[in-house]
Amino acid sequence: MEVTFLALLGLAIKNSLQRKLNFKQVWVMAAYSTTLATVFFFIMDSLQVIVPSGFIINWFVHLIVIYLVLKEVPPIKKKIKEA
Description:
This protein has about 80 residues and is mostly helical. It has helices at about 1-15, 25-35, 35-45, 55-70.
């Protein structure tokens, strides 16, 4: 559920960056972008460390990572009209 919602936000970011990707591709990128924060919070839970505002930090990291990944996708090439 979280990955699908992040993928929907990723579609909005993709459109603002003018990238050509379909929902499946953005969904896979969203799934990968959740890995960093998930591993971090797993380690914190294992060490029994409480992270204040963990929910907000989690989503912030997800959004930053998905933005950085989408930014690396080459933009749509515009066709050049020959005269």
